[in-house]
């Protein structure tokens, strides 16, 4: 009798464990399917700025746009790399969000009011020339 009860307990335990694995697999599949529906776009463009504080402000502005999943601004290259869901936003919305925080992008000039409120270290050279690779150079530093 003890063997029968022990056998039933083992079978029940195996059945419960099997159900947990199946539920976990279904959840993973659902997550993958949702990701496939998103139309992610990667974009890089130049943004004028100087320092780590600029980096935080620029990335926060870009990330605040609905649909943006990643925004990384390179202080040295003066270039931002953005990943976004193009069913929820577009490149111009990201440019405008960054510009509204006071920073010039390749397509939109920064808000003068927001620029005035930036810390001194964040006041960049408005004459800075940006090329398509997102690199910058000042007019007086041209070779």
In short:
The chain is α+β, with helices and mostly antiparallel strands. It has helices at residues 2-37, 52-63, 91-100, 112-116; strands spanning 40-46, 68-74, 79-85, 129-130, 136-137. The strands form two sheets. The chain has a three-stranded antiparallel sheet with strand order 1-3-2, covered by helices on one side. Strands 4-5 form a two-stranded antiparallel ribbon.
Explain this structure.
This protein is α+β, with helices and mostly antiparallel strands. Helices cover 44% and strands 17% of the residues. It contains 4 helices and 5 strands; from the N terminus they run H-E-H-E-E-H-H-E-E. The chain has helices at 2-37, 52-63, 91-100, 112-116; strands at residues 40-46, 68-74, 79-85, 129-130, 136-137. The strands form 2 sheets. A 3-stranded antiparallel β-sheet has the order 1-3-2, covered by helices on one side. Strands 4-5 form a two-stranded antiparallel ribbon. The radius of gyration is 25 Å and the shape is elongated. It starts with a helix and ends in a 6-residue tail after the last strand. Residues 18-34 and 132-143 have low confidence and may be disordered.
Q: Can you tag this structure with a few keywords?
A:
4 helices, two-stranded antiparallel sheet, alpha+beta, single chain, 143 residues
């Amino acid at each position: 009798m003890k063997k029968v009860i022990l056998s039933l307990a083992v079978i029940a335990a195996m059945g419960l464990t099997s159900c947990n694995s199946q539920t976990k697999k279904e959840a993973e599949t659902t997550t993958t399917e949702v990701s496939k529906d998103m139309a992610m776009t990667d974009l890089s463009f130049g943004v004028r700025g100087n320092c780590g504080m600029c980096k935080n402000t620029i990335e926060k502005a870009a990330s605040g746009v609905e649909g943006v999943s990643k925004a990384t601004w390179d202080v040295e290259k003066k270039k931002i790399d953005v990943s976004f869901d193009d069913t929820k936003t577009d490149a111009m919305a990201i440019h405008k969000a960054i510009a509204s925080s006071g920073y010039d992008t390749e397509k939109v000039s920064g808000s003068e009011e927001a620029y005035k409120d930036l810390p001194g270290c964040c006041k960049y050279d408005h004459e800075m020339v940006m090329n398509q690779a997102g690199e910058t150079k000042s007019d007086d530093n041209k070779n």
